[in-house]
Amino acid sequence: MLRLVVQSAKIDPPLAPLPRPCMSIDFRDIKKRTRVVEGNDPVWNETLIWHLWNRPLENDSFLQVTLQDMGSQKKERFIGLATVLLKPLLKQPSEVLFVKDLTLLNHSMKPTDCTVTLQVAHMSNQDIEKTGAEDHLGITAREAASQKLMVPGSTAHRALSSKPQHFQVRVKVFEARQLMGNNIKPVVKVSIAGQQHQTRIKMGNNPFFNEIFFQNFHEVPAKFFDETILIQVVNSSAMRYKAEIGRFQTDIGFIYHSPGHTLLRKWLGLCQPNNPGSGVTGYLKVTIYALGVGDQALIDQKLLYGTDDTDIQIFKSAVVPINMAYLQLFIYCAEDLHLKKHQSVNPQLEVELIGEKLRTHMQTQTDNPIWNQILTFRIQLPCLSSYIKFRVLDCRKKDCPDEIGTASLSLNQISSTGEEIEGVYSGFLPCFGPSFLTLHGGKKAPFRIQEEGACIPDSVRDGLAYRGRVFLELITQIKSYQDSTIKDLSHEVTRIEKHQNRQKYGLCVIFLSCTMMPNFKELIHFEVSIGHYGNKMDLNYKPLVSSTPYSPVIYDGNIYHYVPWYNTKPVVAVTSNWEDVSFRMNCLNLLHFTRDRLKANLDTLKSTRNPKDPALLYQWEKLLRELAEDCKRPLPCMTYQPKATSLDRKRWQLRSLLLQELAQKAKQAKPKDMVATAEDWLYRLNTVLPEPQMGLPDVMIWLVAKEQRVAYAQVPAHSVLFSPAGALHSGRLCGKIQTLFLQYPEGEGQKDVLPAHLRVCMWLGNVTDSKDLQLLRQGDTAVYAEMYENQAKYKDQWGQQGLYHCPNFSDVMGNKTLPMTDFQPPLGWHWQDSWTVEPQRRLLLDIDINKSQVLEEVYENQGRDTRGAWGPAAIPNTDVNGQPMEARENVKCPQGWHFKKDWVVELNHAVDSKGWEYGVGIPPSGLPQVWSPVEKTYHSCRRRRWARVRFRNHGELSHEQETLSFLQLGLAKGEEEGWEYDTFGSKFHLNPQPQSRFRRRCWRRRLAPNKDKGIAPIFLLEGSLAMDLKYHAGKEEDSKTWPWGLDRQFRDPQRQDTRPPNLPFIYCTFNKPHYYQLFCYIYQARNLVSNQILTFQGPFIRVVFLNHSQCTQTLRSSAGPTWAQTLIFQHLLLYENPQDTKESPPLVVLELWQRDFWGKESLWGRSVWPPMVWLDLQDRILPPMRWHPLVKELGKEEGEILASCELILQTEKLGEKQLPILSVPWKNGAYTLPKSIQPTIKRMAIEILAWGLRNMKKASSPQLLVEFGEESLRTEPIRDFQTNPNFPESESVLVLTVLMPTEEAYALPLVVKVVDNWAFGQQTVTGQANIDFLQPYFCDPWAQDYMHPKLPTLSEKKHQDFLGYLYRKFWFKSSKAEDEYEHEVDWWSKLFWATDEHKSLKYKYKDYHTLKVYECELEAVPAFQGLQDFCQTFKLYQEQPKLDSPVVGEFKDV
Fold this sequence. Notes:
The protein is mainly beta and 1454 residues long.
């Protein structure tokens, strides 16, 4: 007996008037209902029963729940429905399935906010006797009698007549996994009773489809059940005879007689039809319905209440063998498992594979647990799951453990099917370690569109924060018996100790620039960490110099901000201890070098768009030569490496075989399908590139504001790792300047806003290899200790009496430190000089220094007195947020600025005639929440806004030179003591003000290393050693001289302030600046697919280079905006050596923006590339313009831009000129392109005969919009599209007169849009086609051999002649002799004669030898032009056309 207690429901949003909900539940075609109650939160507590009779519960048994409003004026109002699977009751019959807050779905199968709460139990007679009166699942005899006991035998499958009935078959394809093959492009073909359906083409071995197909029938049930459903997975890029990956076939009757007439989210095992004994070739997840009239489809709902599939059933053919294996995980130990500060954890490791979860035993109160256990999983090969999921839990709360960290292990990276090599290679079973696996937690990285086939499911995406490492080993065995699932290991694990030997690593990062930042109103700094090392919040490790000094952000004069480091670059140095993985990293970096060179050559090959360009063949030969050279370079051997694991050796063998195969292919390659061939090689290299046994965590660079981590950059450790074996074995970015674009964690930050654009130089390696570390060619390294002395004004005297909660000595943020007399240098360092006062002018910079004008505002506040009259408020002058400010009469004009007008009352918003707005003060702030322009008697306060604009004086120096001169100034007269004064909580100033109540000054002292210890001195800066603190805790309890300000409170474990102690700062100072000029040549953009009627509204380009940015002119709406403009940046300041700049120049960022009619600007995309650097004008060659991709927010490419840039060093001789170095034409207020680089323009006419539209399902009254650059034309709408899909004859000919480049590489595409017209003037773009190459349609009317094209006309009088013309042209002249002749000879004889096989003398004198046989279909032969008629057909898309883009219609024209 199945018993259901319907407890309650929640209807959200609430319905009005109050609904009268009723719950109906279906089980095995038996529907039962609850009583009707009233309200949006109904409570029933009603029990419903179903007798199972002789049909026990099955795995697919389910309840279908529907919530309806019976009080609606209509018959019934549907609210939502859901499905409850009863599989948990089958596994644990004695348990009660409690379903709380089950989400209901709407008509579109989308989740709603409505929920229901149920209890389900499977009860026997003994259970019925045990139930008490208070149990809702118990039921009295009277209640049981009142409910009809229906026998389900006759209702399980209702009687089907012999007459034809209506049926429907639905097949939904979700995803595929573990498809066999290499570099495949799978497509799923579904044949329902012979009717073909097909999904979009995807890439990779684990693609997602998520497509549904319908097929309706009107058949006799018996015949309908005999029809078959054939599902094939085909590799669309392979030859047809070997394209099929696998198939699954079943009859519709099997689906119809399944529970609910459905196979719900089932996995199908695919197999080869000709060789089923080879095993499963992949898996496909589908839902299949077979429904008759009146059948209700089972809701395809992903349940959220914990019905995990621990035994997934795979449907496959009985002749396909099952290959079972046992995957053993040896869980040894873990380290650094931190979740919260000063709190030990009770760790437990959970491993999940194909829904099955196994856990180790729990360790108590430890961050470094030792488990020594074996977890065994039984899997089928190939394994259905692509990942093994690891979770470390803190089991302090038994019912709800906290997640410490997660890690994922891809089975494709630790095993091989053998498909990677096109030879005799059988692959290897999954294996791993013994090695460390890094755990992550916290916030996740944002979703980014990755390479095709590399999509990672969200469930296995790990967090960003480092949470420790797990040391484990994985072995797969094929055997006939199964060991126990969880077994303890022997404590004798000495064989793995060699893998845990640690070495000391040093990480050095030089911050060169930080630009393209939003406006951070508070001070910011950067923190660098690798693992827990460098994390300032983790006090279990030695304090390290892992963060830069605090700094403000300065406006760059356009829209971005930057950090004013200039000639003083901050440096961080982080030391850490890890195992030696150099043998593994050397191999990985060598592969990355091969891959990077191949990708760079491939990108250059793609950029050559003209197939007749002679440079194309040269580039192809260069690609082959360098690939063969790289592939012949042997990888470091793993066979005799003592620390190499089994996976290392097997992947080394796989990688070596692949490189040998690619080297052989590079020798034999022909100049045919060059791009496709190189892309295939690149894909195969990428498959063997990932290293699952990395060991070293990634280097994290965090942007910190308000002591919160705001944004991050993640750098793989191997890419900056130094190797003594040589440059090829080192990381490609080791010791080189690189550019990093920071990004916000998932769900944070503003859209289309970059947190920061960093230029850094990084080095990571063994500290013993850092003796001669010199990252840049110039620059002096200095180390300083820094602290602030604070004073307050008390009774007109400066001193320490009025500081209150502020300490006497602090850091820049006001955190307490020791006095300067109590500082001690760290071990290995000594003081070079004494303490000196040195104001940090970087913190005193005017943040408006690059603005030409600034709006100042002050709010005048008044309140009512006891008589009801208005008078000054308690705080008479505030800002917009109510913070106190100086009176406007006391606000003085800063130096270098001037006012044109005095203060005026602002009347441009909702205020009265005098500028007042009124409100009611609400405690505790006393500020109104709503302001009104009309005075009421109950208003208690009012305010008005005073504003004025101050303008910058135009002096001889530029804004940047003013900034530099301010930073390099010494202490002026009156500033000998170096005090900085604060006013009303604003920024500090060197000059005291009458209102100043607080001041401070910065003391600095330089350090120097004691002696050369064989390593870089900066790696000796480890602050106060934690071991020393523990050792001296008892002896020096009363001592005050703790290195770097470690006081007694820091040693107290109960202390809440967990800030790290004061640390020194490292700087790299550059004495000689270098000036450059940047010339950016911008021509046009194209392929900007947009669903707007007009593709672009007011397009303009913003060019950003370091802390400078400029904009082009704004154009009118255009599908291919053409600027033909040069942007010149003069006096660009770079401090690094010119050779370093030439090798790693700063990147140029081009942003495409559009401005609408209201002046609002929105970002379309960015394009980033390095400029060409010229250190000597004598060597300069004008760089050619190239097409660069425009990338949108998620990493998706949308359009291209034609541009080029060059950066020229400005020597002393050239610097004397105030004009640009190069002579650039000036026209209409802007620099134009040089004639030598500007494409040749020719006026041309484009004639289009618009014939009609085809296969457009969602169109009512479409019209054609043709765009070329800024020119556009439209046809009249097709009024009756369903009966006549052709354009009106009067509007079918379109002529566009345009200016077009003569070079094909610079030509814009012709954009064709189909605009559908709806009621009330609504217009939408339903399809779009881009005709990229117009050269095939080019004709010269003035040529001597020109013939005007004659197109056939379909007039009523001559239609018979036209049909005769077609008959004669495309068929043959009919005659009796020829008819007899044709019937006399069969087609096989003609084929043999045409192919010179089996010639018969009987037809010796016939003309069969003129027949030609093609090896492909005739549509693929270029000469036949796809067997189209005289009108050409173009496919229409709603997105940028890709391999799997759906076609929404076709456009026919001439």
